[in-house]
Amino acid sequence: MANSPDHRNRIILSQLRKRSYTKWVLIGLPAALSLCLIVAAHWLLRTDSGSGWLWQKIVSSAAVEIVSSRPDGNLADGFVVQDLTLLADGMEVAVGRAEITAGPGWWPLSIQIQALSLSDVLLVNHERDDPASDPGQEAGVHSALEALRLPLPLIVNEGRLTSLSYQGGDKPPVRLLESLEFRAALDDRLSVEQLEIVAPQFAVEIQGHVFLQPPFELSVTAQGHLEMLDKPRGIAGPASAWPVTLECSGELDRLRLGIRFPDNGLELEGELSGLADNPEWRVAGVLDQLDWPLDDAGDALSLSGIRFSSHGHIDEWGVELDTQIAYRDVQNNRLILEGTGSGTGVHVRNATLAGPGMDI
């Protein structure tokens, strides 16, 4: 009967079974998905076939043409690509050897690159028939920064580049850098915790960040030194190395800049704008002393307490100079000079020389 005890018990047991099935589905489905993800991650990161498959997917979907030899290894233990070449828009990037060790970061969820190594890198600019600048260059810089935004944060714990050269057309390659080491993170901004650059005649350490969306705010500080194999006679400071510091902040289209050579008394401050399109500048600086000519040929014209400024762009600019001048027996004279210039020449608009018994 419908209301008998046996009937009610069967209904209760049926409901309990349904709840049990639902519970196992709710528990088992996420567990199965998690297991599948773990297996897939293990295959991609810790097997040669998985890492090779992932590399082929990257090559086939990349916005540039990528050519390389057969890769070796896996991402967890070291994934190596020999003779790597990237081709795009008349530019070629050739890498003798690239090696990466990477994996997931679980808290917070991120992509962790434990080590990245590039060696024997050559940048080749294949000259085009029309060398005119691309009117979309500025937009290209902006879109390139925005394209760096990833769905997950990317962290590079140790990056190293050894030997970077540049070749323009058929000209012989020129060595740009001996080595470059860095630690960086990429999320809503590109943050460089440490960037050490060693080049043939300078070394510098840089820290900074740039946001990856308009107006692309940035801040950069740098400290380093310039090495002079043959230091010009006319500039003060030690012969071996000149310490230099740099500070840069603002937005990508308008930067505030400060450069200092403390041992030489050179300081330069100003503003740069339109860097990717038509660069303009407004700068001012001081220099303790400058002797001319810079070699040992003949008597030197000595300038001291130099103050200078300049503003404009490459096609039309102005310059002002105010300095004490000394040459042979003529001492304690003041030179004030104003001029204009362009890509074709310089025009002195006004010049005044004043001193004891002299006013020109």
Structure summary:
With 360 residues, this protein is α+β, with helices and mostly antiparallel strands.
Q: Which descriptors would you attach to this protein?
A:
single chain; 360 residues; 19 strands; alpha+beta; 19-stranded mixed β-sheet
Topology of helices and strands:
Blueprint: H1 5-46, H2 48-61, E1 65-67, E2 72-74, E3 78-88, E4 91-106, E5 109-125, H3 137-147, E6 154-168, E7 174-186, E8 189-199, E9 202-211, E10 217-227, E11 241-251, E12 254-261, E13 266-273, E14 280-292, E15 301-313, E16 316-327, E17 330-341, E18 346-355, E19 358-359
Parallel strand pairs: 5-6
Antiparallel strand pairs: 1-3, 2-3, 3-4, 4-5, 6-7, 7-8, 8-9, 9-10, 10-11, 11-12, 12-13, 13-14, 14-15, 15-16, 16-17, 17-18, 18-19
Helix pairs in contact: 1-2
Q: Can you give a write-up of this model?
A:
The structure is a single chain. The protein has three helices and 19 strands. It has a 19-stranded mixed β-sheet that branches. Residues 129-133 have low confidence and may be disordered. It has 360 residues and is α+β, with helices and mostly antiparallel strands.
